[in-house]
Each structure stands twice: as structure tokens, then as C-alpha cells.
Amino acid sequence: MSAQKAGEIISEFIHSNFDTAEIQISPIADGGDGTCRLLTHELNLEEISIWSLNAYGLPIASFFGWEKEGYKAYIDVSTASGLGSITNKELNPSLASSYGTGILIREAIALGAKEIVLGLGGSATIDLGIGILATLGLEFLDEKGRNITLFSPDYLRRIQHIQRSPKIPKVKFTCLCDVKNTLFGENGAIPVFGPQKGLAKVDIIEFEKTCKNLIEKLYSKVNNTFQEQEGFGAAGGIAAGLNAFFPTELQIGSAYFFNQIDLEAKVSWADLVITGEGRYDSQSKEGKASYELLQLSKKMDKRTVLISSGIEGTKDGFDQVISLPDLDFSLSNYNEIAEDNLKKELNLSLGLDFWT
Question: pTM of the full predicted structure?
Fold first, then answer.
């Protein structure tokens, strides 16, 4: 369920027991899927609707948030190039492209954008941002100097030459990361996130070799050398590719989001902070919103509750952890079941003594 919906259910529970309680519902994000959508809503930005292409080249209704005064656009990679718009049967990283995200970026630049804020979570691609770059003035050619058709098999492997247009736009990218993984290596994007995007384990070594060769080509085009950074592994290396040609800053998504909505002031106001995550696990300490909110709350000596599947949050310092049962996503009504589970566990786990 959405953070807003979960907040409403929790709020209703509290008011049913304490009708004078004061509550603020504040959906938070950490650079993951939907971060820029939430920022667009929380900052009251204009929402620009546009048709784009999904990770496999099919039309998809998309949007971005537009801050006219600051010439800034807020774009989730997942909006056009995300896993959410495709089925597991379609996953094929040798075809998937971030080109649809590039269409959104190009439209924002046409409006006058000087800065693009990219939420990197939830992507279906491992293309080093090549799809985006293809919309911004770069051409990718095969060994015979011919343009390679987008969304075609083994697109990355076939790239042998890169042509750079003198009309590349002047724009800055701020990339919001919900993970700290590097692009390459044991904990890099390809072995860690590749399988969930359809990459077979037997193909990991060869795919990483292809990506290493290509990243060298990108940086040599601007007479530079690739230098690894934490966060370059997010969204299949999009920030690493953009960084070759544009000023690109990586930020921990939770910290950026918290600052934008002044979450510190909201935590200061509260007596009790309740947060949640689909499944809190060992990766949550690597910048996930729930863990970062815990650190902020502890700094202000606020009591905290985590609602999540699993029980790993108990060892990280939450005052109470409410564990929800796992869902069967093969059921058509799993959304309703999720809401019922939350209501039941609130009544079972949060005795009134805790609230006093």
C-alpha cells in the first residue's frame, strides 16, 4: 500500500483510542521508486504529463514535477523505465533501455530546466544511462559506423563508436540514491541487482565485461578516466554514464528528501514516530528512509515504532517492531489483505499502555 494509505490507517487506529491525539501524516522516501512523485506532491509542484516509452519501448503515460522558479525538474526513473510497468516474463536486460526517461528529461530541458533531480530507484535497466544519453545528443554506432536500433538485442555489446553532438544541453543532474552500491565489483550493480532485472547468473561476468568496456569508451570520449563512486550502482549505472558528460551529483535520497520537506521540524514536534518499510532487512541501514528516520528520532530522544514484514528491525534500536505477515502476490486482492493485516496487527501489537 502507499505510505499515505498506511498513514491513514494508523491515524484512524490512534484516534479510535485517543480522540484528542494530534497526528501528522508525512509520507517519506529515500530515492527509491516514487521519490520524485512524493516530492512533487509535498512541494506543491506542477505535474507535467507526457507520453513516453517504457524500458522495452512500449508507450507509457508518464509525468515529471516542474519547479518553474528554480528551473528544476523532478523525475523518477521508475516512471518510464521502471520494473513496475512490465512483467517478470518480459525481463531482458540486453534489451532494456533508459531511453524513456531520457524523453522526460529532454522535455524538461525544453521547458527551460537547468537542473534535473533523478530518483534512481525501481529501474528495469542496466544500461549505464546510454538510453538517456541517446536523447541528449550522443549517437551510438556499431563496428561499421551505423546507428544501432534502440531496444534491439545486445544493444550495449554492439556499441563500438560514440559520436557527440556539439549541441549537448547544459544541465546539471542531482541523482538520489537509495543504495550505496558501486557500479562494478562483488557488490556492484550487475551481480547484486542484475538477477532481479532478468540477468541470468551465467551471464553476469560477460555482461559486466561489456559494461566495463563501454564505460571506458564513454569517459575516453571526454578525455577522462572513470572513477568509481558509492551509488553508481543505483539504477543500472545511470549516474555513472551521465557523469561522463554532465555535472552529476550523487546524494543519499533520504537525506535529500528529509531536507526538502523539513522532516526534522516534524520529528521535533512529535512525541512518537511511527514508520514502515515493505521489508526491513540488512540493506535498510544503507540509506533506507526508515533507518535514517530512526537516527533522526534517536537524536531527539523520540520513541519509535517500525511496521514491516520480518523482524530484523528489533536489533537496530526501534522501541517497538510490528511484524506483518508476508503477502501472496498471486492473489488478486492482496492490497485489501495488506490493509486488513495492518489493522489487525495494530490492535494486537500496540497495547494502550505503550501510548501512555
Answer: 0.89
